[in-house]
Amino acid sequence: PLVALWQQLTVVREWRGDAHLVVLADNGVGPCDCLVLHTATGALPATLLRATRQWDDEEWRAATARLAARGWLDAQGTITDLGT
Questions:
Q1: Which helix (H) or strand (E) holds 12?
Q2: What is the pLDDT of residues 15-30, one digit of tens each?
Q3: How far apart are CA 78 and CA 75, in angstroms?
Q4: Alpha-carbon distance 81 to 11, whole Å?
Q5: What gap in Å lies between CA 68 and CA 80, rounded to an integer?
Q6: Looking at residue 18, what is its pLDDT?
Q7: What is the pTM of this model?
Q8: Which of the residues 5, 16, 35, 57 has an alpha carbon 20 to 30 A from that of 67?
Q9: Strand partners, 79
Q10: What H or E segment, with its residue span, contains residue 4?
Q11: Listed residue (5, 44, 3) closest to 34, CA to CA
Q12: Neighbouring C-beta atoms of residue 37, cutoff 10 Å
């Protein structure tokens, strides 16, 4: 029973993660955009995510510009009410 429960919880976790990715992709939010927005919340430093995900300066700036154009970040790169 424990192994079956573990397997089912794993399936639910993966389904939940995939559902988030589908919603983001359907709304034109790319992977770098997600990380820029996440760092704007203050949850993690940008240096950590940029180092572990290998986004270069140009890609990071482009994602920041896309999020600002949506009104999700302000001119300083801070998350807005619309971006939360």
A1: helix 2-26
A2: 988 898 899 999 999 9
A3: 7
A4: 33
A5: 9
A6: 87
A7: 0.79
A8: 16
A9: 73
A10: helix 2-26
A11: 44
A12: 21
Kindly state the tokens that stand for 5: 């429960």
Alpha-carbon distances of 8 from 17, 18, 32, rounded to whole Å: 14, 15, 30
How far is it, in rounded angstroms, from Cα 6 to Cα 9? 5
Indicate if the pLDDT at residue 80 is higher than 90: yes
Q: Are 75 and 42 in contact (CB under 8 A)?
A: no
Q: Among 13, 58, 15, 55, which Cα is nearest to 35's?
A: 55
Q: Which amino acid is at 50?
A: R
DSSP state for residue 44 in the 8-state scheme: S
> Packing angle between helix 46-53 and helix 31-40, nearest 10 degrees?
160
List, for residues 22-74, the tens digit of each pLDDT value: 999 999 999 999 999 999 999 999 999 999 999 999 999 999 999 999 999 99
Q: Residue 15 — φ and ψ, nearest 5°?
A: -60, -45
